[in-house]
Amino acid sequence: MNIHTVATQAFSDQKPGTSGLRKQVPVFQKRHYLENFVQSIFDSLEGYQGQTLVLGGDGRYYNRTAIQTILKMAAANGWGRVLVGQGGILSTPAVSNLIRQNGAFGGIILSASHNPGGPEGDFGIKYNISNGGPAPEKVTDAIYACSLKIEAYRILEAGDVDLDRLGSQQLGEMTVEVIDSVADYSRLMQSLFDFDRIRDRLRGGLRIAIDSMHAVTGPYATTIFEKELGAAAGTVFNGKPLEDFGGGHPDPNLVYAHDLVELLFGDRAPDFGAASDGDGDRNMILGNHFFVTPSDSLAILAANASLVPAYRNGLSGIARSMPTSAAADRVAQALNLPCYETPTGWKFFGNLLDADRVTLCGEESFGTGSNHVREKDGLWAVLFWLNILAVREQSVAEIVQEHWRTYGRNYYSRHDYEGVESDRASTLVDKLRSQLPSLTGQKLGAYTVAYADDFRYEDPVDGSISEQQGIRIGFEDGSRMVFRLSGTGTAGATLRLYLERFEGDTTKQGLDPQVALADLIAIADEVAQITTLTGFDQPTVIT
């Protein structure tokens, strides 16, 4: 083997965020930039030599190039085997499943999730640990520490691996196995859900539409829905993964999944629609002229879990991220289950899942999942909904409205202000934090502040502490607003405002959320001076 030790200098900007390191493609293309971060991952680990690594990505621009580099570096650093998806394609939940199924030491996922792709778009890389979940903060902190002191990286001089040919290839002393990207994940889904019942419902006339947004789930959705469940050809659209996602923004929300929204709110709308994001871990659920909020979706899956084979024997608990609405809490209370509130970031669910404290978990950012893997899982959520629809034989709207009548409705909305100048965003948050000690007991409009804080989380499993996870202002009637700066973008800052109000009166549960939350929206703008400090007179995206 001809292994090169290449001298390099550290970059100061390789601190992983909530989902790894995300930068624009030209940043990753800088000399040594990708190599430094990959070597920093390896340098932060102990005992991986001779072990198995899972590797794949969402197919965005630079995916194949990065995979070849990582394979050669893995060989030079002593990994024994790498499982890589055919064509370099693996969804994030598929990687998590492969790590768990194969007893792998860990995995590297190449994705910037729901961010745009292309030569000037975004790219990302993150490391998942042996449980299949995203690296916890102690691991990402160690990676960052290594990135600040790196002086050299190791790489094998070799030709490229044929990523399109299934089977084993040798790269120095390391074995590279190019595997079917879909097969293992599809088998997992069949073990969880009643495919026969879903298939019968589709034959009985249930019409569905699946928008893969030219992202990673295209091959998965086509195999599962059209080939295995027998949905009509064309059920899956935008199904070919493209390096630039067809020029679109692979974020499954009401703004960016416009093809699906137009279809489901059109004159000949199907009964059910769903979209997934760049790397396949998020989902948006729609009925005929009906949108299901992610917060409601988590609560409804929990309330109907006994209808699904994998969860027929009950749940151990439910977890939600702090900004996610309390709708799931009401289900947990009714079922006498524990409910945990965590910071944003799927890694915080990992300890709860591993300790069997929870079975289902979710985030308001269109992510839901369970203990079957250690990532959120878009197609899993879609199949869960289809299983419920097949058993209950009601429409999406009927199921949701019945849920509200039973548990009450948590009016909920998220307002995103994308691309805010970083200094302006920091000023807003700093000013808001300075107000917190004096807000409790104050009257804001018709609401009285019950608490005002910056969310602090103590992990109930390992006792680790996470500070400043989002500014919360809660009111005596249970309404609240949350302010967070997102860590998933690559340009400027994204300010997220979350608004929630509970309504138990069934005669008042049919309002548009923006109408029901109008007074809270106005109060939030006044308290945080959003318009003044950001320069935005309205959100970029409302969900």
UniProtKB/TrEMBL annotation:
Entry GO MF terms: magnesium ion binding; phosphoglucomutase activity
Sequence ranges assigned to domain Alpha-D-phosphohexomutase alpha/beta/alpha in this UniProt record: 14-153, 184-286, 295-407
Catalytic activity, as annotated: alpha-D-glucose 1-phosphate = alpha-D-glucose 6-phosphate
An example Gene Ontology biological process: glucose metabolic process
Cofactor: Mg(2+)
Matches recorded under PROSITE patterns: PGM_PMM
InterPro entries in the record: A-D-PHexomutase_a/b/a-I (IPR005844), A-D-PHexomutase_a/b/a-I/II/III (IPR016055), A-D-PHexomutase_a/b/a-II (IPR005845), A-D-PHexomutase_a/b/a-III (IPR005846), A-D-PHexomutase_C_sf (IPR036900), A-D-PHexomutase_CS (IPR016066), Alpha-D-phosphohexomutase_SF (IPR005841), PGM (IPR045244)
Ranges that cross the membrane: none
GO cellular component: cytosol
Record keywords: Carbohydrate metabolism, Glucose metabolism, Isomerase, Magnesium, Metal-binding, Phosphoprotein
Pfam families, alphabetized: PGM1_C_vert_fung (PF24947), PGM_PMM_I (PF02878), PGM_PMM_II (PF02879), PGM_PMM_III (PF02880)
Keyword Magnesium carried by entry: yes
Enzyme Commission (EC) number: 5.4.2.2
PANTHER family reported in the protein's UniProt record: PHOSPHOGLUCOMUTASE, PHOSPHOHEXOMUTASE FAMILY MEMBER
Family recorded in the similarity comment: Belongs to the phosphohexose mutase family.
Name of the protein this chain belongs to: phosphoglucomutase (alpha-D-glucose-1,6-bisphosphate-dependent)
Native species: Synechococcus elongatus (strain ATCC 33912 / PCC 7942 / FACHB-805) (Anacystis nidulans R2)
